[in-house]
Specification:
alpha+beta; Structural Genomics Hypothetical 15.5 Kd Protein In mrcA-pckA Intergenic Region, Chain A; Pseudouridine synthase; 3 domains; nine-stranded mixed sheet; five-stranded antiparallel sheet; 7 helices; globular
């Protein structure tokens, strides 16, 4: 490999011992000052070329390939701190884990320029999180999904946790309240997932371009017309749990994108009233298990169920134990 760099552009010629490695992985290895997620964004933003052509992150490089990496100028810091409360359930000098509330978007975007989790992070510690790529966030949850959200507080921890997510060594468990009763006590859903062919806001198991996805589930509690599931993610595709459960005709209660109408069943008045109060998918990221980047000890974090899910479960349980109601 030979490399020549100026302030903006890096040139890499692939050596024989680096042949047949994914483009994103090789560039990350050769530029360890950047995280793999950042390199992925550069590839998708047309900032990395192979032999003057745009390639996919999974392109297997060949001996003699000429890779050009253009690092864009740092954009002005426009994300401002906002006093948004954070429910912190774990923190040390390397990591921060919060129990994210419903309605909180993780990253600022054109439709959500403020009021995001990043705004809250900067209010909590602007000096710390301004120094880390993407403010230290190594994974995300949908806006209305609650639960464990992990943030790295330094570059070394971010690289370690990014690799852990990429290599699927992190244990991610969710709780979901779904429509209907399951026919078995547990199962596996492995439909591939990609962008919906006509609705760009949705993902689908019938996409033209797709990636493998695997969700393991088991029953936590069964009711007359609903089931509380525990789910273990083996992959981390966009909307994976929501798409998979909808695909097997057990969509998540309250899901506005993949779900059913709230009054589908002829429920008792108390249940109908509770269903009308639900304004989001009943999905909660309840557990994270991982090797700590510094201590190399296994860490297990549990986020308590949010109040709206607890209240819904109480109503359903009451109907089960008091059928006269």
């Amino acid at each position: 490999m030979s490399r020549q760099a100026d302030l903006q552009t890096h040139h890499i010629v692939v050596a024989e011992n680096n042949s047949q490695i994914r483009l994103d992985k090789l560039v990350t290895q050769l530029m360890p000052q950047h995280t793999r997620s950042y390199i992925l964004r550069l590839i998708k933003s047309d900032c990395i070329h192979v032999n003057q052509h745009l390639k996919k992150p999974g392109y297997m490089v060949r001996t003699g390939d000429h890779i050009t990496i253009t690092i864009p100028e740092n954009e002005p810091h426009t994300v401002l701190p906002e006093p948004i409360p954070l429910d912190i359930i774990f923190e040390d000098k390397d990591l921060l884990i919060v129990n994210k509330q419903a309605g909180l978007v993780v990253h600022p975007s054109p439709g959500h320029a403020n009021g995001t989790f990043v705004n809250a992070l900067l209010h909590y510690n602007s000096v710390q999180f301004s120094k880390v790529d993407r403010f230290g966030i190594v994974h995300r949850l949908d806006q209305d999904t609650t639960g464990c959200l992990l943030v790295a507080k330094n570059r070394a921890s971010q690289v370690f946790m990014n690799n852990a997510f990429s290599e699927r060594t992190i244990e991610k468990k969710y709780s979901a309240l779904v429509h209907g009763q399951m026919k078995t006590k547990q199962g596996i859903i492995d439909f591939p997932i990609g962008r919906h062919p006509t609705n760009r806001k949705k993902m689908s198991i019938h996409a033209r371009r797709y990636r493998s996805a695997e969700t393991h589930w088991k029953i936590s509690c069964q009711f007359n017309h609903f089931t509380l599931l525990e789910l273990l993610l083996k992959t981390g595709r966009t909307h994976q749990i929501r798409v998979h459960l909808s695909a097997i005709n057990h969509p998540i209660v309250g899901d506005p994108l993949y779900g059913r109408k709230k009054n589908l069943y002829n429920q008792k008045p108390e249940v109908q009233l509770q269903l009308k109060k639900i304004n989001r998918q009943m999905l909660h990221a309840k557990e994270l298990g991982f090797i700590h980047p510094r201590t190399k000890q296994f860490i297990h974090i549990v986020a308590p169920l949010p109040e709206d899910m607890m209240q819904t479960l109480k109503v359903l349980q009451k109907m089960e134990t008091d059928p006269a109601k």
